[in-house]
Give the backbone structure.
Amino acid sequence: MRVLVTGPSLKDQGGVAGYYNALLPFLKHEGIAVSYLEIGGTHAAGGILSPLVDQLRFRSALRRFRPHLVHINPSFNLKSFLRGGFFIRGACRVRAGLPVLVFFRGWRQGFEHAAETRYRTFFTRTYGKAAAVIVLGRAIEQKLRAWGVTAPIHVEHTVVAEELLAGFSLSERLRG
């Protein structure tokens, strides 16, 4: 199986990069070929054109890698929401029926109203076509259901790198 994953630079200190630095070795061990496409953020080479550069690089990766699954990781803010939506639209245009998995990371409650009103049609025509969605809380799952998402929604938790827990004893910490 080939999976195209979009996300921030794996050199970043953030939670998404840490998540994939912990997860990617396990996927490789399971025989899953992953192409990780670094987008946006701290290492964006395109400057003001980085959103366009991200879209072009994404479409190129789709054609070159020919994934069986596309996995995007948008935050729920305007910039990431639009970029992720265009990734979904691009995946559907390059290959009809290509499943897209959406893992919503940061969730900005202040953006909910805009998504429900101004961007509702965009949401339905893009994120509404996802094969499955992952969220980090039940309240987000309920919100997506209220917006008409019918795809499976999985509520997950983040991972912790095992080396961070080496030598750590919860019982000792609780004793004081």
